[in-house]
């Protein structure tokens, strides 16, 4: 593919690939762990496979401008397929690999997809389940041949067959791909990512090469990223964060993408790779911390005491040392000892020993959780962005990290606050349009070219942006006090025992909460106390567990009482749900954001019980099991009344 490179500007992803194949052709571009062994592809290997895939697609009749769906875990050929489609002027459309068939159906119909590329037999079966409802589907391609021997339908193809066909096509038409790549423009749509559908049907967000390359280059320059970085690519390819950090920035800088063997081996693979650059949503950092705390509870008394002693040192000085701020000599010496005995081994267990910079985004991260990672020496930073902005709006500069902000506007981005408190942004990273939705596009971008994010926020005295909540979710209690549910929920989720929280209070006299316990953390806690249980529903109903969660809520209430405008948002009543909120039951999006309106409607009797003063409430709920069966879960839920604290109105 080297001969295809020219002096053209590197303003599209295919042209960036060609540049890397020329400049660093023998350097590793991608790795994948398969059967316990890491396999590597150099930039030259990737360019050659992309050529074969693209030519195979051309032979099959794929045309410029059409969409090709990609469904599966992070795999090198999934990323290669993206670039191959872009080489032909097409638009890759990644879907969430854990989406059920009915969820895939909406997107495949909406995007008018003729070609679908999936990872394995599981994904093939999903497509076949809805095949009758996809009259436009012509070709179903797969990567992993295991289990596919008896699938003989003529429209199902092994990608190796496609590549063999492509190599023959390339010999017969050696100039075709070069001309297709040359015909591409920076303003062409490079990818379509569907929104999570928190408040309605998902929308296809069409983003250009220029938008994503601008975002990737801006972030790389901001943090000094080079071709020497290693990143573990394990987050859903359909999520804008993965597309920016794993695909776009790798294409811009030339660093190496590493794909884990499976979701179950991510932690092991993370330790083996030792990435220098890391990205995860808050829920991943929450889960990692939960695992750490569970392990510490099982440790010896000596290790527990040492851990808690040095963590106290880290809390008061670790983040300041990381930011280069003045710290007493005594704390510096204690921190150095802590690094030998606690922080260093802990980072090694987490696979974070080599990390230079780590980012989190996708939802607000609790300040306490943020401080924990920075206090042990991990340069964790927040960024702010959305699907429509290539996940690129605000970044936190080194040495200027604030736990309650998302940093300053990123290079090339303008941010302002509307009169109603909504955050408005403008820059090269904005979407081109919503697919087949000119009405939605017109509503999202104002007359001055600013994208209306739907988030409420404010700038502090240093120009750092603070996100309060979704603008539509920020409300008022009955007494007129401000109410920001997401802020309260994040405080609750800092505790390792709380996996999910949903709070209510808009236009009501008090705040109440639904809680999902973390079955791993609470189960471990219960077992060490000899509390027997038969499953989630049984464990969630235990009086001891209610006491545990009530303690957590009372700690949050104690913090809220000192937070001025939010002091009235203390939680007065709560219950522990009898089932985990689940994307398969439509209660969460595939990015695990709560569908607040749906949850409120589905569990309306529980909300009525919370505000009606009842001490318990019976509920029966329909659920979907992993194998597709449906059933019901029923329980009598106890309602708890945690302690609240008097508010000093002079301080508030």
Helix and strand topology:
Blueprint: H1 13-23, E1 28-34, E2 37-42, H2 43-60, E3 67-71, H3 76-87, E4 91-95, H4 101-110, E5 115-118, H5 121-129, E6 139-142, E7 156-158, H6 159-172, H7 176-183, E8 189-194, E9 204-208, H8 209-223, E10 230-232, H9 240-253, E11 256-259, H10 266-273, E12 277-279, H11 282-297, H12 301-322, H13 329-350, E13 357-360, H14 367-375, E14 380-384, E15 394-395, E16 408-409, E17 414-417, E18 422-426, E19 433-434, H15 438-444, E20 451-459, E21 465-470, E22 475-476, E23 482-483, H16 485-493, E24 498-504, E25 511-517, H17 519-528, H18 536-540, H19 543-560, E26 571-576, H20 596-602, H21 604-611, E27 616-624, E28 630-640
Parallel strand pairs: 1-11, 3-4, 3-5, 5-6, 6-7, 10-11, 12-13, 13-14, 25-26
Antiparallel strand pairs: 1-2, 8-9, 9-19, 14-15, 15-16, 17-18, 18-20, 20-21, 22-23, 24-25, 26-28, 27-28
Helix pairs in contact: 1-2, 2-3, 2-6, 8-9, 11-17, 12-13, 12-14
């Amino acid at each position: 593919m080297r001969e295809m490179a020219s002096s053209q500007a590197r303003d599209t992803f295919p042209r960036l690939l060609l540049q890397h194949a020329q400049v660093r052709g023998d350097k590793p571009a991608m790795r994948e762990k398969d059967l316990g062994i890491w396999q590597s592809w150099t930039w030259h290997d990737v360019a050659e496979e992309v050529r074969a895939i693209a030519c195979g697609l051309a032979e099959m009749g794929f045309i410029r401008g059409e969409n090709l769906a990609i469904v599966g875990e992070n795999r090198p050929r999934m990323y290669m397929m993206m670039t191959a489609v872009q080489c032909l002027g097409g638009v890759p459309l990644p879907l969430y690999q854990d989406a059920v068939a009915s969820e895939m159906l909406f997107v495949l119909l909406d995007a008018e997809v003729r070609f679908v590329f999936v990872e394995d037999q599981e994904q093939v079966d999903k497509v076949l389940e809805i095949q009758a409802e996809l009259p436009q589907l012509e070709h179903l391609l797969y990567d992993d041949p295991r289990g596919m021997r008896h699938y003989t339908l003529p429209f199902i193809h092994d990608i190796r067959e496609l590549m063999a066909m492509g190599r023959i096509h390339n010999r017969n038409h050696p100039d075709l791909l070069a001309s297709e790549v040359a015909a591409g423009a920076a303003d062409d749509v490079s990818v379509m990512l569907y929104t999570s559908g928190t408040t309605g049907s998902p929308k296809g967000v069409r983003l250009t090469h220029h938008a994503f390359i601008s975002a990737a280059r801006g972030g790389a320059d901001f943090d000094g990223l080079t071709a020497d970085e290693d990143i573990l690519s394990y987050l859903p390819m359909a999520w804008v964060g993965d597309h920016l950090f794993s695909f776009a920035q790798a294409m811009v800088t030339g660093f190496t993408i590493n794909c884990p063997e499976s979701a179950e081996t991510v932690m092991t693979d993370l330790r083996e790779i030792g990435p220098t650059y890391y990205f995860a949503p808050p829920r991943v950092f929450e889960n990692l911390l939960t695992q750490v705390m569970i392990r510490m509870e099982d440790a010896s008394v000596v290790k527990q005491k040492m851990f808690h002693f040095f963590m106290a040192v880290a809390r008061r000085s670790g983040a300041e040392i990381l930011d280069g701020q003045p710290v007493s000599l005594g704390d510096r010496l204690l921190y150095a000892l802590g690094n030998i005995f606690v922080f260093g081994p802990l980072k090694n267990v987490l696979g974070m020993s080599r990390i230079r910079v780590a980012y989190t985004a996708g939802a607000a991260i609790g300040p306490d959780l943020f401080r924990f990672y920075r206090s042990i020496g991990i340069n964790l930073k927040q960024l702010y962005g959305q699907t429509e902005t290539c996940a690129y709006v605000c970044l936190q500069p080194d040495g200027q990290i604030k736990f309650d902000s998302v940093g300053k506007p990123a290079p090339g981005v303008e941010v302002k606050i509307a009169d109603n408190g909504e955050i408005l942004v403008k820059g090269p990273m904005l979407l081109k349009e919503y697919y087949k939705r000119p009405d939605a596009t017109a509503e999202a971008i104002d007359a001055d070219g600013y994208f209306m994010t739907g988030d409420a926020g404010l700038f502090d005295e240093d120009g750092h942006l603070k996100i309060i909540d979704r603008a539509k979710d920020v409300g008022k209690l009955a007494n007129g006090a401000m109410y920001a549910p997401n802020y309260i929920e994040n405080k609750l989720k800092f505790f390792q025992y709380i996996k999910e929280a949903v709070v209510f209070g808009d236009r009501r006299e008090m705040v109440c909460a639904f809680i999902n316990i973390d079955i791993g953390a609470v189960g471990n806690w219960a077992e060490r106390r000899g509390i027997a249980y038969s499953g989630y529903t049984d464990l969630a109903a235990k009086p001891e567990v209610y006491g545990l969660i009530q303690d957590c809520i009372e700690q949050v209430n104690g913090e809220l009482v000192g937070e001025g405008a939010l002091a009235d948002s203390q939680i007065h009543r709560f219950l522990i749900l009898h089932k985990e909120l689940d994307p398969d039951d439509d209660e969460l999006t595939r990015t695990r954001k709560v569908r607040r309106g749906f949850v409120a409607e589905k569990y309306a009797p529980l909300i009525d019980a919370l505000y009606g003063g009842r001490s318990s409430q019976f509920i029966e709920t329909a659920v979907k099991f992993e194998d597709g069966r449906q059933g019901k879960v029923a329980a009598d839920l106890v309602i708890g009344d945690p302690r609240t604290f008097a508010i000093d109105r002079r301080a508030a």
